[in-house]
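seq as requested:
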Amino acid sequence: MPVRSNNPLDLAVGMLYYSRPDVFLGTSARATLSPSTFKVFERVYGLGIAKPPGDRGDYAYNCLSGSRVLVVVCKRGVSTFDVTEELSNLGFRISFWGLKDAGAYSCQFMVLNCPTSLTIPRYLLEGAAELFPLREVGLDFRVGRHQLAGNLFEVLMEVAEGSAEELSARIAKSGESLYLNYFGYQRFGYARPVNHLIGRAIVLGDCESALHLLLGKPSALESPEAQVARRLFEEGDYRGALEKFPRSLRLERRVLKEYLRLGNPRKALLRSVPPSLLRFLVEAYQSYLFNLALSRIFEELGDVEGVSRNCELLDLPRPSTPTSGCSGYSAEVIAEDLGEGVGKADSSLMSAYARETTFAVENRSTESV
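struct tokens:
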């Protein structure tokens, strides 16, 4: 029988049910999200695992005009979009497979397209990101979400109750099952899970709401400076908000500057938010709907194995999603969420692909330190 989550963050992003409450570690272990305790290495079919190569010597890698270079990017405490924005400012065009948690140490593959001759930097963002060029790739080398095989995680946990042996046994049990393949928290934001709400507003053409969701809605999980800035924005003191926004919140500062200059929410967003980020925000909305649809399937079928047998793949919801078969769940949730607005929704930025509904933990191992 499905067990409903009581975590406000789970519910806010559409993850309504626990996949495996029987393997929940509860109070037996403690884990914190930091670059030293949580590491993520991307896996892409045909490329393997994104890890730094053995040779880390100094280098200058030149990317000739018109060429494309496959790189591994490793980051500490910064997001995928922080890196892509910095690379865009240097003149590169970037393609990548997946998003990685900003609070972790993470490595992922990217393809850098060089419209002019450029030197690929070794470090970005004051050393928080490091780049390792692997090889040049041709124009026929594609970057698609279906190629993403998952991630390799390294998590440091502290034994809170019981023994390390008992904890290892429970972790071993967790690797014997399938899990619901929800979109995770990083897609929506930990401190402020509003990315999907911004995407929803964009789909509906409500740029004023999108702007206020991006710049307002302070969260107690953010820095005090960010909270003050968002409150000032909500109070209408836009220039005061700009002065208070931390330098690390580059997107907010850039959008607010454009809004102060233009006074038009739509123009401010379109001129200051890269198209790739607009698509990401819209896909975050689709991800929220996907989570809702997957929760609905799980509720009806009763167990994860049943979901895997009956609905191996599920479409990301779009207004044009077929209403038959498993796609019907996706069609239902977007129709319910948008109501009469579903016929007016702008689907030009929406992604059209299917995602596996379940996943299994592979190559699990534990080691005491």
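Residues 76 and 126 are 11 Å apart (CA to CA).
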